[in-house]
Write the structure tokens for this entry.
Amino acid sequence: MTIAIYPGSFDPITNGHLDIATRAARVFEKLIIGVFETPNKPILFSSQERVELIRKAVAGLPNVEVESFGGLTVNFARKVKAQAMVRGLRMSADFEREFDMAMMTKKLYPELEFVCLMSRMEYQFLSSSLLKEAASLGGDIDDLVPKHVADALKQKFQAKT
Ligand code: ADP
């Protein structure tokens, strides 16, 4: 069986992430979305909340699973017996970072293939961090995330004010 992981912070999942997951799920027999428990940046949603938001978003994709993980991504890939790691590439922002990550991943786990899918035009400028900024200021983010994610963002920011 071809198994791929799609790792990230997903704080929270956006339509850009969902598009990459949907397309990767057509290529691989099983896709496991891996949620970094403790990313190296400020986090709005707990790892459990992020997992639940993703599970609801991918409920219609039968070959997609969601798990959280800590430590090295390659160890997570080994644990779930993945042959590939999927990442999304936006036009300018991601290339250098993803290239470095691909080189390091290859060094640590040579059998794992690093597969980048290009972001669709409409999601090229969508990131979780910009989304959170817009949502925190009351911006309309309804087109950029699934409905339950928009609701969760509104609740978070209401609770904070
Ligand atoms: P990280 O914490 O690793 O930066 P993110 O949760 O921000 O991860 O994103 C996970 C993956 O999804 C990364 O490969 C990132 O480039 C990709 N991604 C993020 N936003 C988009 C988008 N709008 N379109 C396509 N891919 C995206």
About this structure: Residues 3-125 form a domain with the Rossmann fold fold (CATH 3.40.50.620). The chain has six helices and five strands. Residues 8-10, 14, 16-17, 20, 39, 87-88, 90, 94, 119, 123, 126-128 surround adenosine-5'-diphosphate (CB under 6 Å).
